[in-house]
């Protein structure tokens, strides 16, 4: 077996998930198969609405054995006892401050770094991971080419884990896995149709398993 290949795990990103479907869709998604973590995206909600959503979802996520990570609202993360925070600004200064305040007690991850130089600068701060892809940017069936390129480059030269955002088609997890990123984020592919969330997570894990067995043989 080629030891350079790892079996990536799923990260779910809630961007398209509506409040009415949130609990049932999250329960179904987490019951569908292996999920390492869930990033809760405010996605335009005000602070009160987002906290209400997080209060409902964080216990469900944690009960399923996944990490609950709150994006861009550290106060909310503390109030709901989330496992981590995620910063989308692409600002190394903000990331550095978060590392000083919250690491290692909480998982600290970040996205929004558009160039290799910026990503490396962020990596020097030693967050738990970087995510390549923009929240809500998975509008096409395939992953964004820039996310794939950044993920391939990062996974080859940097030990710090990365997450690559897949496309809106569940089959795109295979292209994302081929970057050798440690994690693959799914958002629209799972939550755009909430009734199918569990089925999509199961399908994604099956596709990853098949890819890994072939790649590592």
From TrEMBL:
Cellular-component GO terms for this entry: cytoplasm
Any Pfam family: TMP-TENI
Domain Thiamine phosphate synthase/TenI: 19-190
Gene Ontology biological process terms, A to Z: thiamine biosynthetic process
Entry keywords, A to Z: Thiamine biosynthesis
Pathway(s) annotated for this protein in UniProt: Cofactor biosynthesis; thiamine diphosphate biosynthesis
InterPro entries: Aldolase_TIM, ThiamineP_synth_sf, ThiamineP_synth_TenI
Source organism superkingdom: Bacteria
Gene3D superfamilies listed in its UniProt record: Aldolase class I
One annotated GO molecular function: thiamine-phosphate diphosphorylase activity
PANTHER family registered for this protein in UniProt: THIAMINE-PHOSPHATE PYROPHOSPHORYLASE, THIAMINE-PHOSPHATE SYNTHASE
Protein name: Putative thiamine-phosphate pyrophosphorylase
Natural source organism: Aurantimonas manganoxydans (strain ATCC BAA-1229 / DSM 21871 / SI85-9A1)
């Amino acid at each position: 077996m080629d030891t350079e290949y790892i079996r990536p795990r799923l990260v779910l990103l809630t961007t398209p998930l509506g409040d009415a479907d949130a609990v049932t869709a999250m329960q179904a998604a987490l019951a569908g198969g292996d999920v390492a973590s869930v990033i809760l995206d405010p996605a335009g909600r005000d602070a009160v609405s987002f906290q209400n959503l997080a209060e409902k979802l964080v216990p469900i996520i944690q009960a399923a054995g996944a990490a609950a990570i709150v994006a861009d609202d550290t106060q909310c993360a503390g109030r709901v006892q989330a496992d981590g925070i995620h910063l989308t600004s692409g600002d190394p200064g903000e990331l550095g401050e978060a590392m000083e305040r919250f690491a290692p007690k909480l998982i600290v991850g970040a996205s929004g770094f558009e160039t290799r130089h910026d990503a490396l600068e962020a990596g020097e701060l030693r967050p738990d991971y970087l995510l390549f892809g923009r929240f809500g940017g998975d509008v096409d069936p395939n992953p964004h080419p820039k996310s794939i390129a950044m993920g391939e480059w990062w996974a080859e030269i940097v030990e710090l884990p990365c997450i690559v955002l897949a496309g809106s088609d569940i089959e795109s997890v295979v292209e994302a896995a081929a970057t050798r990123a440690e994690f693959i984020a799914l958002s629209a592919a799972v939550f755009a149709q909430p009734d199918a969330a569990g089925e999509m997570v199961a399908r994604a894990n099956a596709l990853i398993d098949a890819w890994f067995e072939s790649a590592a043989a």
